Every structure is written in structure tokens, then in C-alpha cells.
Amino acid sequence: MNDQKRQGIKTMSESNIEAKPSAFNTADITALSHLYRGELYRSTVWRTRLDTTTNWAVLTTGIALSLTFSSESASPLPLVLVGLLVATFLHIEARRYRFFDFWRMRAHVLEVYFFGPILRGHGVQVENGWNDILYQDYRAPNLHISYPEAVGRRLRHNYSWIFAIQVTAYIGKLLIHPAPVASLHEFWTRAAIGPIPGQLVLLAGLAFHAAWIMIAIATYRGRRGAGRARPQNSERDRLLDLARG
Q1: Residue 1 lies in a domain
Q2: Per-residue confidence band for 123, with pLDDT thresholds at 50, 70 and 90
Q3: pLDDT tens digits, 64-102
Q4: What is the mean pLDDT of residues 214-230?
Q5: What is the SS3 assignment for 170?
Q6: Rounded to two decimals, what is the model's pTM?
Q7: Which of 45, 55, 224, 228 has its CA 20 to 30 A from that of 72?
Q8: What is the chain's mean pLDDT, rounded?
Q9: Is the dihedral of CA 84, 85, 90, 95 positive or negative?
Q10: Long-range contacts for 132-138 (Cβ within 8 Å, ≥24 apart)?
């Protein structure tokens, strides 16, 4: 009974594909194949740029940790400054992610609606109008993810961990390095930066990180595709079985 229900559920591409003659000739298919290669290449380039900014954030955080714990007299200030630097990298990476998402989406459309029917033996089909939609996107390019959502995604996937390491190291520096703190007054003294009282420094840090947490939560609830039904994973990995022969 469950198998019959699953067979009755079809995706948008499957419901519009029948055994009809291909909508493109051989030359058209060759041109579209080259177009796909170009879109895939551009998405790969932007994906590499994402890794670059993440590496910058990890490297600078590591340098700040080394400076902060290098000696007994070392100041926790590098850990404060690196938080601002990591936030700058997050801003850059969110902008880059929007372009990566732009190129990736075009490549995915070609994979699903161009190569998909070919793999299923139906030839290229255009009944659902995917080619017209893709053409309009070439005529009037438009980014498909907002800047706040891009920030939220990079926060949840990468930068939340970097910020967590920074906060943990900073609090650890104040509490136990070079020796365990003996009083609350000493804790405030260690947190002070020049004429700025330690209470104000910690309050600013709390507001800084609370803002990132709020952005991550808010963008998760309103993220693109939040209400989309996910296909159920089968108990066996059929592609893995196929690859094994």
C-alpha cells in the first residue's frame, strides 16, 4: 500500500515528462551542455571564494588565541578585536554566498530539467516552461537569496562555531589566565580595556553576540524552502548499491 502511494507522488519534473520527442536537436543539446559546464564552473569559483573567507576567519582567530595566551602579561584585547574582524569576514562571505547561490541555482535547474529527462530516457522536455524561466533569468538576472538570509546561513553553518570559540577563549582568559580570578573586582579589572570599564566591555560583547544569535534564529524560521516537503530517505542507499555493482 505504501509503495503504491509513493508511486503516486510525483515531482514537478516527473509529472510533466512523458515519452515525447525531444524539444531540442543535437546541436541545441550540445550548446546547453556547454552552458551547464559554464554555470557549474562559475558556481565552483564562488564556492571556493566562500572557503577563502572562512579560512581567513579561522586563521585570524587562531592568531588572536596565540597572542592572548602567549604570556602571563598578554592582554585579552586581541580576542575582542578578532570578533570585529570575523564579523567583517562574515559580511564579505554573505555577499559572496548570494552570488554562489545565483550560479548554483541555474546549474541545478539544468541538472533537474535538462539532464534529468535525458537520464530517464525521455529526451529534453519543456512542458513545464523551465527553459522560458531560465531565459528570463538570463535577460534580467536577479539574486535569489536576501542578504540577511545569507548571513544567517553562514552563521549557522560556520561562523557560529568561530564566535563560540572566541567567546570561550575570552572568558577563559579572564577567569583562569595567568591565574584563577580571586574576586569579582579582579574579573572586572581584567575585562577593562584602557579607560573603558570591564562591565561596559562585557555588556558590549554580550550585545554583539546576542545580535548574531537573533539573526541566526530569525533567518532560520523564515528561510527559503522552510515549508517544502522533504523526500523520505529510503533505508537502503540505492546509488551506493549501484556503484558497488
Answers
A1: no
A2: confident
A3: 999 999 998 899 999 999 999 999 999 999 999 999 999
A4: 78
A5: helix
A6: 0.83
A7: 55
A8: 88
A9: positive
A10: 133/109, 134/106, 134/109, 134/110, 137/106
Whether 237 is in a domain gets the answer no
> Within 13 Å, how many C-alpha atoms sit on residue 196's CB side?
10
Q: Are 147 and 94 in contact (CB under 8 A)?
A: yes
* CA–CA separation, 25 and 176 (whole Å): 72
Residue reference for cell 561596559: 200
pLDDT value at 173 more than 90: yes
Indicate the DSSP class of residue 193.
B
pLDDT tens-digit profile of 47-67? Answer: 999 999 999 999 999 999 999
> For 123, left (φ over 0), alpha (ψ -120 to 50), or beta?
left
Query: For the chain, how many residues are written?
Result: 245
**Segments forming the whole domain that contains residue 211:** 12-224
Q: Is residue 5 a part of any domain in this protein? A: no
**pLDDT above 90 for 42:** yes
Q: Report the chain's C-alpha Rg in angstroms.
A: 26
Say if residues 175 and 184 touch (Cβ distance below 8 Å): no
Helices (H), the chain: 2-8, 12-15, 26-68, 77-110, 116-119, 130-139, 147-154, 160-176, 184-191, 198-221, 238-244
* pLDDT band, residue 228 (cuts 50/70/90): low
Q: Per the structure, how many domains does the chain have?
A: 1
Interatomic CA distance for residues 105 and 120, integer angstroms: 21
Q: Please name the residues in contact with 54: beta carbons below 8 A apart, sequence gap of 6 or more.
A: 89, 93, 158, 159
In a domain, 133, yes or no: yes
Answer yes or no: are the C-beta atoms of 124 and 23 closer than 8 Å: yes
